[in-house]
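Let us work through a complete example step by step.
Step 1: write down the sequence.
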Amino acid sequence: MAGKSDSEPGNGQARTRLTRQILFYAVCVLVIGIAVWGTEPGLSPLSGPDPKDSYYNLLVQGFRVGQLNLKKEVPSGLARLADPYDSAAHAPYLPDVGDMSYYGGKLYLYFGITPVLVLLWPYALLTGEYLSDPLAGLIFCSAGYLAAAGLMFAIWRRYFPKVSVWVAMAGIFMFGLTVDAQQIEWVRSRIYEVALSSAFAFTMITLAAIWRALHEPKERVLCLGLASLAYGLAVGARPSLLPGAVILLAPVWQVWREATETGLRSRIGSSFAAAVGPISLIGLGLMLYNFLRFGNPFEFGYRYELTGRDQTVVSQFSPHYFWFNIQYYILEPARWTGHFPFLRPVPPWPSSVGHLVPGLYYGGILFIGFPPAWLAFGAAVTRKAGPKDEFFGLRWFVLVLFLAFAACALTLFLFLYATNRYELDFLPALMLLAFIGLLDLESTTAVSPLLRSFGRLCWGLLLVYGAITNACASFDAYATANDVAGNVLYNRGLVDEAGERFQKALAFSPQDADAHGGLGNVLSRKGDFKGAIAQYQRAVEARPDFWEAYNNLGYCLLQAGRVDDAIIQYRKAIELRPQDATYHRGLGNAFLQKGMSDNAIVEFQKVLELEPDSADDAERLGDAFFREGKLSDAVVQYENVVRLKPDFAEAHNNLGYSLFATGDPDEAIAQYKKAIELRPNFAQAYNNLGNAYRGKRMAVQAIAAYQKAVALQSQFTPAQINLTWMLAVWPEPSIRNGTEAVAMAERANDFTGGRNSEVLRALAAAYAESGRFPDAITAANQASSLAATQSKTELVKEIRGDIKLYQNRSPCRSMAGP
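Step 2: predict the structure and record it as tokens.
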């Protein structure tokens, strides 16, 4: 029978190859699946939900209309600034144009152009849609990982075929998990990560092409050209990778070494041209691009970038940053906790050498955070180097990886800012070295079962620890990503969607203080103060220095009527942030609600020291002064409010109220009229205007003002009382109208349920004016009893005087108010 049976070697080798391929593809699918999962929370605070508004797509739109700047209008206020790079001056515009470069009245993109040329622009042309930043980052990361995975598979099959497929797949998976962890930890705006992931993808393609050039002499020139092109695109995405271009010369050096032994020097020129030609052309293109934008071929827009600092005066690279960055990227220990997900970000620390406070990260890579990288030290170091040695090509490639790692890492060690996302510049090269070290360790220990077991124990522990570290960091970063997305949604008014994100964050990190605080904000806005209090309490338990949560907890306690507890929380917030006006404001409000106006005055005075132009706080300070009887001080504050907010009707009304109380009814009337002019339906201002007219004995005008107040707000009890009283007791007969007074007072009494002593007193006066003295006595007695239970001693005395009049069948007569 033709063919071979399953037991024959050919079928066995075929099955082995098939098994290896299936495992390899399964690992790749798993790694990319994790990356897809980690991409889900991404939501940029620097752009809207429409991908068209992302910075990269604004550049795409600019290119499509023939311009190099973004298709976005410059904020008019920014354009008028004398120094637009002053961080304080341009701060108000950062939510709209933050991290853009502003030059010559136009907005540019500082970040690399490569993603636009190779993905985002072609995608827009082909589909008519715009690719989102998170999806673009996912595509680049996946492409880079697949290139690296194929490279690792080739290294294993060529140099270590006897090493178990499971060992090789473990190394390939660990590399992918490291890349995934980096990608998942990208929790801020995805602008940066598009450039980083693009550079990663083209760097991995470069390494794969160099590998091919080192091992396939007949394809060397073509592969070197591809490597040069790919690395040029990587530099176009991340200009800081330029020093790493030295790796392109390694294959040329190999050719030169071979040529000195064989005498065939003709290959050196073609290899060198292939290695430097494409990247040089790309470099010239970038220089032209920069010159056309900024008039300087070496300016990428960094000095003109709008950030929270003045980029024109900072030193971008300096040897002073070196030790700080070594600590950050290499030496800083991880922070393990006793609760899931067990790993927390390292608290940022300030620098004394001008280095910016570092971003989110989970500990030094080499010695703490990624112990599998230790295996990089064993990468083919035991192999002899020689043209006839079977590991000759591998040694050259190890040199390439080491140069890639060293050049890119050294560049970042001299940079003024450090963050975990920058690790993608050099960490993949280090992990590829570690993969080779793993295979080499497994191969060299094969001579002794005991040695192999010990070696597997060692590298197995490293891989397990690395997997745990990456997984825990990913879970925490995933929770943080949902925190960021939740805050973005909350700020856009999508409260329910924000709550879902915070809940998802807590599912992965139950002790996440930010998520508890965010969920507290959601519940507070929805009016669930009890639930919000519980969330804020969880937040401050998880992070005792969480001053925002203390402030928000104080607010919710205040809304729930727990004023004393609110004061305690506000004081904690102020203790942590004594120069924050928000927390003094909250404590002042709590004191006002508790009736402690003297304490409130102190707090609002502190607020106005910190924020002198805060009209709302000047108004609250005026209220506190008024309650304390410091009328002159109240007038000063209300005048300050009117100055700061001349169109604020309430401010004019409050100023009028204070002026009337200080004995200046004429100026009070002017302020009330201004308030009514600004807000014609301002019933309270009409009522106050009536009081001022009554104080000047202008009865007709007073009644007209009261009637207008009641017409605007039919159940406005103070105006009903005032109008009833004047109609019932005013000395001039032409003003009084007992019938109308009774009708008005009875409506007010019905509305208040017979539980308002002032209304009952006015009703009694109206009955007396109408000759219904028994009814007047009954209503006055009810008013007196109710006032007594409310401890209104002076009112009780006045009502008793009224009763004596009614018992003598005599109505009240008075020009004073009720």
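Step 3: interpret the result. Strands lie at 100-103, 106-109, 335-336, 343-344.
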